[in-house]
Specification:
There is one protein chain. By secondary structure, the protein is an alpha/beta fold. It is 20% helix and 46% strand. It has three helices and 22 strands. The chain has a 17-stranded parallel sheet that branches. The protein has a five-stranded antiparallel sheet with strand order 1-2-3-4-22. It is elongated and about 110 Å long. It starts with a helix and ends with a strand. The relative contact order is 0.13.
């Protein structure tokens, strides 16, 4: 065999060896990057969990560094943050960051109060709910009981969720039953009594507190009576201990820093051309007795809607903050998780 042939074979073998070596090096580097990425990811997840722990146990909010060296990543390169959430006042975001050769970020969403999602619906009912007549609902509807849809004149421009569902003509974007129950939220009406600008009785509140166009918190503690009000114009909050009949051309607009416009510790009957801007909270049932009632906010009616006449419209508007008198104690849980 000639020298040239031997040399050619040698060069060929060398080229193959160099190619294989290069591929091995690439795979080693790729493996190292994967390991580094995994280390960074799991460390970021640990940081997010540390943030959740600090929020649940100590009420922590803000930024801090992870207290321990983890996965060969120094504490200065591991941090967590507890911040407000775009989902609203009842949520917090727990964010964890970690960086070695790779940068990874994990975020958990914490729900602080189990009943707070009730405020995210145009109508929430703890009890059975009947949707009928010509009611127009812009937003989602939730019932812990059975929802019955009657007739075809109503409209739900949103989703309908209920523990039970009867009728196939709900006219909603989608319907679902058998869902997890949302516990009813509790608003203490006497909170508004403690901050009231005017306090009166069912018989005298119209003249004592609602003449003209007042601004403030109006409070009636008359549980054995029905307060009847027609064509009032109030900016602030109206809280009634007892039943309330509201009618005429009444307009009630909640304060910008207090989302509850009407709180009724009893039953609500509403008719005429009433317009309400804010949260309507009713411990009993709600009766739409006729007219063109409009609610821009949400209706929480624990015992459902007993009757619907006229052409009521309920258009969901998210709360601007935590309602006054909301008494639930924090019971946080993680409801969402993702890597950013």
């Amino acid at each position: 065999m000639s020298l040239m042939v031997i040399l050619g074979i040698g060069l060929f073998v060398l080229a193959i060896a160099l190619t294989l070596t290069g591929q091995i090096v690439v795979e080693i580097m790729r493996g190292r990057n994967t390991i580094a990425g995994d280390q960074s990811f799991f460390t970021a997840e640990a940081a997010a969990r540390e943030g959740v722990y600090q929020r649940i146990n100590y009420g922590f909010e803000g930024n801090d560094n992870f207290p321990l060296l983890l996965n060969n990543i120094s504490t200065s390169s591991i941090s967590f943050e507890i911040a407000t959430s775009t989902l609203g006042w009842a949520y917090r975001e727990a964010k964890g960051d970690a960086q070695n050769a790779n940068y990874r970020k994990v975020k958990s969403t914490i729900l602080l109060y189990r009943s707070a999602p009730a405020f995210e619906y145009a109508i929430y009912s703890e009890d059975d709910l009947v949707i009928k007549g010509s009611i127009n609902i812009i937003g989602d509807v939730f019932s812990n009981g059975t929802t019955t849809c009657k007739g075809n004149a109503h409209n739900i421009d949103g989703d309908l969720f209920s523990a039970g569902l009867t009728g196939n003509n709900c006219n909603a974007s989608s319907t679902g039953s058998g869902l997890e129950i949302i516990p009813p939220p509790t608003i203490d009406p006497y909170y508004y009594g403690s901050i009231a600008t005017c306090t009166s009785t069912a018989a005298n509140v119209a003249t004592d507190c609602l003449a003209g166009a007042p601004s403030g918190v109006i409070f009636v503690d008359d549980p054995s009576s029905t307060t009847t009000l027609n064509t009032i114009n109030l900016t602030g909050n109206l809280t009634i201990i007892g039943d309330l009949n509201l009618g005429g051309n009444s307009v009630i607009t909640a304060f910008s820093d207090e989302p509850a416009a009407v709180v009724v510790d009893g039953n609500l009957k509403i008719a005429g051309n009433v317009r309400i801007y804010g949260l309507v909270y009713v411990t009993g049932s709600t009766n739409f007795a006729g007219g063109n009632v409009e609610i821009y906010g949400s209706l929480i009616s624990a015992r459902g809607v007993s009757d619907i006449k006229g052409n009521p419209r309920i258009e969901y508007v998210a709360l601007t903050g935590r309602p006054g008198g909301f008494t639930e104690v924090e019971d946080p849980r993680i409801v969402r998780w993702k890597e950013e």
